[in-house]
Every structure is written in C-alpha cells, then in structure tokens.
C-alpha cells in the first residue's frame, strides 16, 4: 500500500497543543504517513524552544525551518515571512508531501501556504472562517482559505463564511474544534505536580494572564496591557501567572512589561510557555483567565471556566457564555475581574455549553483526508452564493 504523505506544519506552542492529537492519530492510520515540519517560535530559546516538547511527545521532526528574526517590528515580521517561504520551499521539495495541514492564522502559516501553493500541494486548513477584527491574523486566515483546498471549520457560522468566500460547500466540513477533543482526553497534573513543575504556589485566588498584541493598531497593545497591569494592582490577594505573548508586533515590549511587573509584585510570576498539559491543568485549578487568547473562547467553556476578553483582537468570534468582554480601560477591567470571581458567575459556568464541541474532531478530519479524491490540477471553481 502506498501511503499518503501528510505534512503537518507547526510554528507555535498554542497551535501545536491543538495539532498534537491529530498528529498522533495520523501516525496510527495505516494508509497515512505523518511528516512534521517545525518552525517559528518552536525554534526560539526566547519563547521556550518548544521543539523539545514535540520531541518529548515522540514525534520525528522531518524538517526545521528557521525563519524567526529577533525583531517584532513590521520590518522584522515581513522579513521573517519571506525567510519562511524560502525555507518551506526547500522543505517541501525534499519531503514531497501529498497534502499539507495548516491550522490557524499566523504569519509562519502563511509562509508555508504560499510555498505549498507554488508547489501545487493541496492544503487542508483548520479553523478557517473565523473573525478577529483586532489583528492581521484576520486577513491571513481568509487568505489561507483561498489558498487551501479542504476546509475544516469549528462551527456552522464559520462554515457559511468560508462558503461566502467562494469555496465549494462539498470541500467545507464542520468538525468542531480539536481543543475540545483534547480536553475530553486530557490527563491533568495534580495541583502539587503542577506547582513543583512551574514553581508557582497556588493561593486562595489565582488568575492566568495571557495577552497577545492587537497587531492592526500602532502602539495600542502596550497601552492596553498597561491598563490591565494597573487593574491587577487592585487585587494584591490574587496570585497571578503570566505567559508570554506570541512573536507578533510589540510582543517583546509586552514581555518586558511582564518581567518588570513580576519583579515589582510578589504575587505575580511568569513562564514563557506552559505547553498544553500544564496550561490545561492550570486552568483546572485557577479562578479564570484574563487577556485575549482564542483558547479562552474555544477551550475554556469545556472546562467550565470563565475568561475576561479585553479589547478587539477576538472581536467577531462566536462566544460562549463563559466570556466577559471588557473595554481596555483600568476600571472596566477591575469590574470584569469582580464579576469573574463572583459566586453568581461561577454558578452560571456550571451550566454552560461549548459552541465548539462536535465529537471526535480528529477522526472526522482523518476520514475526509483518507477518502477525498483531490483533483490533480487543484483547479477550484468560485462558488458564488448569489448564483452568478
């Protein structure tokens, strides 16, 4: 039997945490051969050199694509994207995959997609059709939709949006979110194991802060984050754990602000990367999350945990009832934290449903990949919803 070579590209800790279960299932499927290409923040000591987590999970790294420059400026991100296209061209020429799987909307992913397009390698894209108005991820995500051949979306709202972008309905599949499936199978660390591992001591109240830049507005992210830090000063009895932002514009400035805040406040601690296992375990034991991470929207409802979503980065996504939206202003964030910690809100969380849950997402993706016959030319007719 000739196996289909399925190449999974991963460039960040958060995206790998979602892809891991799919990668394991691909490697166990007789007719499929997993190829793994690692890039971006995984190869950066500054962001935890998380390639080691991938190796620890037992995956063979087929290729590494070095592309991340030590700069979060517009010039640095642009040059990193260009370097990525060059590196992925070499990787795809050597590996000659039958299909590439990409998840999300980062510039590393865009580099891989552009290279794959010119090699005429079909792309399966996960998490298309979503909206995040406060970041250029929005434009990247929709660009990936047009470059990709198969689409695995997480809700019917997003399925309809991918079709609205001109993709044929027969190539768009609502499979739910991989993150929800991961939670259902997750083996959580005990609180003591987690404390020993990350050198964090849980108190009576504990919060995780994970904030990423709003990349479409110049200098707005540092102003927003400053308001968040000032709000946190009003809660000296809460133990706070910060994780680092992604390698986006202004990301390193936020990292510097985190480091300075933790030096000045004994109740605050940071860790560059928690990884999937420690991240979900921390969520289980903490009182909620503050920031603007997509994981708060997609995964946290399955853990019955609340989150404060600050600003516009995630504006446009389908929100569950676990989300408290707050404008990026100190007093508004303070009010939101009080709601997050209230007994009324915690009781409400016990009854919420996750709009992203849809069964065994990984198996649904694999079944489509196994059986779908892809046109050799990859020609796609534009599906016009107006019938023109």
Description of the molecule:
The chain is of the alpha/beta class. The chain is built from 15 helices and 13 strands. Helix 4 (107-119) links the parallel strand 4 and strand 5.
Q: Give the overall shape, derived from the CA principal axes.
A: globular
| Major β-sheet profile | 7 strands, parallel
Number of folding domains? 2
CATH topology of the largest domain: Rossmann fold
Gap from first CA to last CA:
43 Å
Number of helices: 15
Short description:
By secondary structure, the protein is α/β, with parallel strands linked by helices.
Keyword list:
six-stranded parallel β-sheet, 13 strands, seven-stranded parallel β-sheet, 388 residues, 42% helix, Rossmann fold, globular, alpha/beta
């Amino acid at each position: 039997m000739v196996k289909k070579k399925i190449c999974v590209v991963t460039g960040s800790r958060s995206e790998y945490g979602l892809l891991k279960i799919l990668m394991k299932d691909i490697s166990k499927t007789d007719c499929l051969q997993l190829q793994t290409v690692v890039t971006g923040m995984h190869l950066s000591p500054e962001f935890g050199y998380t390639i080691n987590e991938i190796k620890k999970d037992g995956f063979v790294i087929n290729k590494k694509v070095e592309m991340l420059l030590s700069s979060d400026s517009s010039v640095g991100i642009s040059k990193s994207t260009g370097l990525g296209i060059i590196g992925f061209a070499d990787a795809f020429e050597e590996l000659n995959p039958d299909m590439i799987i990409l998840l999300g909307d980062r510039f590393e992913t865009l580099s891989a997609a552009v290279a794959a397009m010119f090699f005429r390698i079909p792309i399966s894209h996960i998490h298309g059709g979503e909206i995040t108005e406060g970041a250029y991820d929005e434009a990247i995500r929709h660009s990936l939709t047009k470059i990709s051949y198969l689409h695995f979306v997480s809700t019917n709202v997003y399925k309809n949006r991918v079709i609205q972008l001109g993709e044929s309905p027969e190539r768009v599949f609502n499979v739910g979110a991989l993150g929800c499936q991961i939670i259902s199978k997750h083996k959580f660390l005990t609180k003591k194991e987690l404390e020993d591992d990350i050198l964090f001591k849980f108190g009576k109240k504990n919060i995780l802060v994970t904030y990423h830049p709003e990349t479409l507005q110049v200098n707005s992210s540092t102003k927003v984050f400053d308001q968040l830090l000032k709000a946190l000063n009003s809660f000296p009895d809460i133990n706070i754990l910060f994780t680092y932002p992604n390698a986006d514009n202004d990301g390193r400035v936020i990292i510097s602000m985190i480091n300075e805040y933790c030096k000045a406040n004994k109740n605050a601690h940071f860790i560059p990367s928690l990884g999937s296992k420690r991240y979900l375990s921390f969520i289980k034991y903490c009182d909620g999350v503050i920031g603007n991470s997509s994981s708060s929207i997609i995964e946290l409802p399955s853990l019955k945990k609340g989150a404060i979503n600050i600003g516009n980065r995630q504006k446009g996504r389908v929100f569950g009832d676990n989300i408290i939206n707050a404008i990026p202003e100190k007093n508004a964030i303070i009010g939101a934290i009080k709601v997050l910690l209230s007994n009324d809100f915690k009781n409400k969380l016990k009854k919420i449903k996750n709009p992203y849950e849809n069964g065994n997402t990984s198996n649904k993706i694999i079944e489509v990949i196994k059986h779908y016959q892809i046109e050799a030319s990859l020609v796609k007719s534009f599906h016009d919803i107006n019938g023109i």
